[in-house]
Amino acid sequence: xxxxxxxxxxxxxxxxxxxxxxxxxxxxxxxxxxxxxxxxxxxxxxxxxxxxxxxxxxxxxxxxxxxxxxxxxxxxxxxxxxxxxxxxxxxxxxxxxxxxxxxxxxxxxxxxxxxxxxxxxxxxxxxxxxxxxxxxxxxxxxxxxxxxxxxxxxxxxxxxxxxxxxxxxxxxxxxxxxxxxxxxxxxxxxxxxxxxxxxxxxxxxxxxxxxxxxxxxxxxxxxxxxxxxxxxxxxxxxxxxxxxxxxxxxxxxxxxxxxxxxxxxxxxxxxxxxxxxxxxxxxxxxxxxxxxxxxxxxxxxxxxxxxxxxxxxxxxxxxxxxxxxxxxxxxxxxxxxxxxxxxxxxxxxxxxxxxxxxxxxxxxxxxxxxxxxxxxxxxxxxxxxxxxxxxxxxxxxxxxxxxxxxxxxxxxxxxxxxxxxxxxxxxxxxxxxxxxxxxxxxxxxxxxxxxxxxxxxxxxxxxxxxxxxxxxxxxxxxxxxxxxxxxxxxxxxxxxxxxxxxxxxxxxxxxxxxxxxxxxxxxxxxxxxxxxxxxxxxxxxxxxxxxxxxxxxxxxxxxxxxxxxxxxxxxxxxxxxxxxxxxxxxxxxxxxxxxxxxxxxxxxxxxxxxxxxxxxxxxxxxxxxxxxxxxxxxxxxxxx
Length: 640
Known about the structure:
single chain; alpha+beta; Methylamine Dehydrogenase, Chain H; four-stranded antiparallel β-sheet; 13 helices; 42 strands; elongated; Intraflagellar transport protein 80 homolog; WD40_rpt; WD repeat; TPR_IFT80_172_dom; WD40/YVTN_repeat-like_dom_sf
């Protein structure tokens, strides 16, 4: 039964393709491509795609990219908005077929006596010239390792994807045949051959381990020993993604997401409503030692966060929700679980960072940069790099945005990236080596300064003296700025003072000195929190410690008059102090009181500055005594 006629026109439709959500249909109309939504009255997207009749289209569900091929002898790659991402050189004959590999990383192109394998960005990996006539249709196997082509001479051509390469530090692994891998150690030119029982489907090389999945089994090799892999059976044959972290790795197949240790022990399998594993890729899933992050497909503004050890949602099951659709996510790899950060790029190409474990108040999502196309965390420390418009940017200490936004620009390293041409992609960030793939497919290796990574190491081990010595040796402003932010984050104000002095932030040095003179530990802690902009947390800390006057005073210092009066009235203390400071403030600017609450409490109240000063002195003395009493009780406890 005919359900509906989507479109009618006077020219043949040579090819159609569903969109990833099966809510739109892409079809050809002469030289035009048309995207027609199934909902009635929805806007139709149409554009001229080729100079000749379009013969074939394909739309991939994982990367959401469109392929088209036509009689103008070209194939092209488009995004789902109809923007051209890649335009091939003209072939000798019309391009008669194109097809995406299931994982969206490769596609195949067929023409007369021609079969071509290409990367998702368009550049060509391999060209074969089989004697087949025109290849009219191409189909990929479910695992993405084989191609079948329907040929004009009545034959079917079969092809296998080989010569794939993986690199990590001094190791290079090449898939030489369907069931054979060659491992080369470039330091001593040693070569090992790895033989498998079944054909290799996916592999990943990172963190001193090679993980290989075949159609039935998973092999885990250590780079220290290539002879005895750990082998276990897979639940389902077709692994579509392998992700590695330092302690474990993640396998994604048609049935689910599975986390294994490098000893082959099953750890967990996170699940969420409406999970579709077939469309997950390295941009939408991220793994660290303690966390798994997965972008939701049903609502692309949401990231699900799971505990790696249990597979359960983090904390109370809160989701990470953003205002715009998210296109790429990445978890940092080092440090404590409580400090874990996630960076993500949204559809506007803005880069944001937020904390995975959001304590107390909702941790804010902070923008780090604009026009960011690709990003990667270092595998050895929490340094982030990205390609930002025409610049390559390294965020040496991204956490600075939570500690001191003023010095954040001083913690960046930037260099010109115009040499990478259009749409480059960061492949890996290992140690201080960044590998970038250019638009033409060539790899570009770039080294960044090794010193920030050493600084991270010292700070993580609380070797503050060594950190200061390193900064004095390097003599770079970025290093001092990073150290200042790290010291404040770790509450080491002595180091912070030295670092701020080195970058000329004299006002902050003075403020740190004033913190040192405060009478109690709670006051010092509250002012350190204020230094980082956490005013609400500072106030809560003081109120919990019973230091009500100090909580009122920080609001007066910040001109938060409403909150200062609210606290004074609530705790029935220092109402006259708040009114006195308010009056002095208004007199300074020559203004009259207009706030009804202040007018109400000021009625019939005589402000006596002498009395107020005595009260303040008493509060400070009381705080000092309390602090010294608690210290002496601690000393007694230690003695006993």
